[in-house]
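Exam review. A common question shows you a sequence with its structure tokens and asks you to describe the fold in words. Practice with the pair below. Do the first one on your own.
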Amino acid sequence: MADRNTRLVSADREAKNGDVAVIDFEGFLGGKPFDGGKGENHSLELGSGSFVPGFEEQVVGMKAGDEKDINITFPADYAPELAGKDVVFKVKLHEVKEKDVPAMDDEFAKDVSEFDTLEDLKADIEKKIADEREQAAQQAFEDKRMQQVAENITADVPDAMVESQARRFVDNFKNQIQQQGIPYEQYMQMTGITEGKLLEDAKEPALRQVRMDLALAAIIKEEKIEISDEDVEAEYNTMAGQYGIELENIKKYLPAEQIKDQLSSRKAIDLVRDSAVAVEPKAAEAEEKPAKKPAAKKTAKAAEGEEKPAKKAAKAADGEEKPAKKPSAKKTAKKAE
């Protein structure tokens, strides 16, 4: 926790690994600037490996006000236009910042929490960690069961659906990078990653996601899962309380149909989980095989060899092109804040 509450303070000395250097930089290839090689007032954590190999090491030792030419040879597996090329980065260092880690005592506990003592704060953290592990075990259990159901879909998944999902993954990644204050094109240049490579790497998880979406859609159809207007209203109220957003704003940003889709998927997952086992894994027993119980509802026993309704439902998805799962309603709610 002390690390999370570390603050950065100016240091009047040479930069070293672990410091944050605030720099301007511009890269030149053959004496000419190249695309994506320029940044101003960029905060670079030295030793993080976030820049091209050899760059951060040469910033070490610079002081505020220093200017320096940094010579770099890009790796052979870098972006084609720069791979193996010798370039020069002109760098100006504005400020060196070091991490100031607070003392772990009762005063720290009062500053960062509602607790008066460090002991009470630690006890609360331990409880939250235990809860998170339990939730993680539950999530892993549900993911495994849903994966088994998705594997029952034997028809070929259309390439267009996979490519569309892969594109969504890449777009989400692009947004995450830009939210960190790093221009996407600059990130691609500095890391040597191409968008084509990102899309290719995203295809396998995209295929898993599409198969999962098809399985959920098939279970929802087979089990005739329906969401009432009362269910939607209750979810709106829950989310408004959870995120501290006015109810009307939640409704403005999240259409009722999107809420229904989320609740339908949740119910489908619950059906698979509840009909598959009698005892779910504890956090410390996540790897143990759960015991079976007779199905109470007509959904899949994904872990069993016999063909149960949800398996039939999964097969019902064969040959159908269902839309990929919509973005999480809760994630969208966070954007509304």
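Now try the second one, then compare your answer with the model answer below.
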Amino acid sequence: PLRVEMAAILDTSFDFRAKTDKPAAAAPKEAVAEATVAGSLSYVLHPLVVINISDHHTRVCAQNQASERVFGVLLGEQSGRRVEIANSFEIKVSVNAAGVYEPVKAYLGTRLEQYKKTFPNYELIGWYSTASEVQLGDLAFHEHMCEMNESLLYLVLDPVQALVPGNRELPILLHESEIHVVDEKPTMCFAKVGYKIDSIESERIAVDHVAHILPSGDSNSGSAVTQHLGTQYTAISVLSERVDIIQKYLQAVSSGQIQGDHDLLRQIKSLCSQLPALDTSKFNQEYLCDCNNTLLVTHMATITKGTGMINDIIDKYNTAYDKHSRRRGIF
């Protein structure tokens, strides 16, 4: 299965602008600009998008037993000059008579409406595919996508480069469409733009967990959260098993099935005595006292806050009244 370099994804301060200056080899000149465009917008890519694309490619390859291109849509939002690519979903495509991929617009429109209800702030900001570089039919596909929304981005993920041993770069190129004059005619082409990786806390936990999953589906070490929860689960399970053993032993002694060991019974009695007694009058009295003290502190804080607000109102009233009295005395 496809596994991209997770160390680069976890580094939220990593900037890929310096790595996008490599021209798209063997791509047609009318399709991709040779130089990287700085652009006036700042693009931010979330790890969830990379995981979705990788999972989409892996599932298709596993089902068809062959490597095939996959297509999908990029969702996000723009705030000023900052464009965040936050989510994605796969789409259905068809092949026309010329052998060029085209999106199934009916399916795309339905999925966009569904996502709009769940994520009202997200909008269509681009599309993605898996390939080593921009293909010949990608411009035609991009034009079809632009009918849904203008000025879309095009993200290309290279699954072959992701499997190269020792590869430390994220095999992703981000493009925006521009109009260039070719043979004295305005022609649309792709221009590579820089992007940054950014993530929220939930994404960092998910990526950390995925990074430790082996191809077999097992985890060799697991994420920090998984290890912490696993330790707690193991401790509680062991405690529950030992309590069951003590309970069964006491039941057997009580029923006369086995002879009781007085030394062991004294240890069990000592262990039970160390447990907090929650049904005694002393505990109820101490608990009620602590509860009343907590409520008293809360009430005192509320009274203090209300007193401060009243003092502010009085000060404002006195200030306004003094000014009014002075004006009336002057006139």
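Model answer, second protein: Residues 82 and 98 are 38 Å apart (CA to CA). Confidence is low (pLDDT under 50) at residues 1-30. Full marks require stating both points clearly.
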